[in-house]
């Protein structure tokens, strides 16, 4: 059997990370890994998380099996975080704890494949690198729509033009906020148009919410999602607690199915449980128990998320200013106004290779960098290096 396996090369992102770890140059910069880092370059355990963990450890609850849907308190808390307090909206959702945001995406696409195996999933180009493998895993077709910005902001026309051939029942992935990898977010008017477009074409929005709280704030970042939910009968949501709670390795997320009304969900809700049962059975409890505590008494946690959000915004502004001071061209001008951790630099593979080889600066070949992988001291050398390799 083993000899018959098709060749699979190692994941390019993780190969790059391991090259970085072996780089002996002390000035090396890791802008590859998609994790928040503080000014000391570490990915901290939030104080609110540490407190919740201590309380959980003291309570010493049994590690008995829980439920296929995971932690019920967490699921309710996540529904409120994503959808707000509106009872009509909340009555239309079924939420299930998942193995991170990735697990939520996989549960949801498996659900789509069981209902409409001939559906096409539409994702942005550029887009999150794992969307294609996730969406095609159960055999669905995969197409892309352009996601870009003009001087005036988000290019809605390009997006809707590419989505025009979508058929009823197709799925359109929308990034809830802080688009990965471009940092280009839709404005409220764009969300309104996209929401109306989905309703008119009867395509199903799948909102990937991996960075709630990192863009304009916890509630503001969910405004687009809530609009889509209010105007479309069926919506899917994949949420991650990796970034906004710092629970990366605890693999905590939520898969939400929204139907036209509560009655429509009754026959649907066992299906994601059956899918989970045939895969990993139950999701890990620890991260969800911590998250449930944060969601129940959110004050301290929200303060910490706001501090992380502001650090991202400050780093973006400082990098933008440093690039301007170095005389960088127009392609870099939008870095400062983009949202979230990621930006796509206007650099080709050769320039990214030169950054690695000549300056020990690691981003991915497509020009993707994690802005919050930087410390303030690294901004000036980064801006200098970017200007040197640009155009190669
Ligand atoms: N969706 C997007 C857009 C992401 O950027 C990420 C993580 O980087 C995920 C989903 C997956 O999140 P998780 O690490 O919780 O699986």
From TrEMBL:
GO terms under biological process: L-phenylalanine biosynthetic process from chorismate via phenylpyruvate
Boundaries of every Aminotransferase class I/classII large domain copy: 29-386
Keywords: Aminotransferase, Pyridoxal phosphate, Transferase
Domain of life, per lineage: Bacteria
The keyword Iron appears for this protein: no
Gene Ontology MF terms: identical protein binding; L-aspartate:2-oxoglutarate aminotransferase activity; L-tyrosine-2-oxoglutarate transaminase activity; pyridoxal phosphate binding
Transferase in keyword set: yes
Cofactor(s) named in the record: pyridoxal 5'-phosphate
Cellular-component GO terms for this entry: cytosol
Family in the record: Belongs to the class-I pyridoxal-phosphate-dependent aminotransferase family.
Subunit structure: Homodimer.
Annotated protein name in UniProt: Aromatic amino acid transaminase
Organism: Limimaricola litoreus
Upper lineage: Bacteria, Pseudomonadati, Pseudomonadota, Alphaproteobacteria, Rhodobacterales
Residue window of the full protein shown: 1 to 392 of 560
């Amino acid at each position: 059997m083993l000899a018959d396996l098709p060749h699979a090369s190692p994941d390019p992102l993780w190969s790059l990370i391991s090259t970085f770890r072996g780089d002996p140059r002390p000035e090396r910069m890791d802008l590859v890994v998609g994790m928040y880092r503080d000014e000391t370059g570490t990915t901290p355990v939030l104080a609110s998380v540490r407190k919740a963990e201590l309380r959980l450890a003291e309570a010493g609850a049994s590690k008995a099996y829980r439920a296929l849907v995971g932690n019920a308190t967490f699921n309710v808390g996540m529904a409120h975080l994503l959808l707000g307090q509106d009872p009509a909206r909340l009555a239309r959702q079924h939420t299930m704890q998942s193995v991170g945001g990735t697990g939520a995406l996989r549960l949801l696409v498996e659900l789509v494949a069981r209902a409409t195996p001939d559906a096409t999933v539409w994702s942005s180009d550029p887009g999150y690198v794992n969307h294609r493998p996730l969406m095609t895993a159960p055999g669905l077709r995969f197409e892309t729509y352009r996601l870009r910005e003009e001087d005036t902001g988000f290019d809605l026309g390009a997006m809707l033009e590419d989505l025009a051939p979508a058929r009823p029942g197709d799925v359109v992935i929308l990034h809830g906020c802080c688009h990965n990898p471009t940092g280009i977010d839709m404005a409220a008017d764009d969300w309104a148009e996209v929401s109306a477009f989905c309703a008119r074409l009867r395509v199903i929005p799948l909102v990937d919410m991996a960075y709630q709280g990192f863009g304009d704030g916890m509630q503001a970042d969910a405004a687009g999602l809530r609009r889509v939910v209010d105007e479309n009968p069926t919506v899917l949501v994949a949420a991650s607690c990796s970034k906004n709670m710092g629970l990366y390795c605890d693999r905590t997320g939520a898969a939400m199915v929204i139907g036209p009304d509560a009655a429509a969900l009754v026959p649907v809700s066992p299906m994601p449980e059956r899918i989970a049962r045939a895969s990993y059975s139950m999701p890990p409890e620890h991260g969800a128990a911590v998250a449930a505590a944060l969601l129940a008494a959110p004050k301290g946690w929200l303060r910490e998320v706001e501090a992380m959000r502001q650090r991202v915004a400050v780093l973006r502004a400082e990098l933008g200013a440093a690039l301007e001071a170095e005389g960088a061209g127009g392609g870099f001008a939008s870095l400062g106004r983009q949202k979230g951790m990621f930006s796509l630099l206007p650099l080709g593979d050769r320039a990214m290779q030169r950054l690695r080889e000549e300056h020990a600066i690691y981003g991915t070949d497509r020009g993707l960098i994690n802005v919050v992988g930087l410390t303030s001291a690294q901004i000036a050398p980064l801006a200098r290096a970017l200007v040197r390799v640009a155009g190669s």
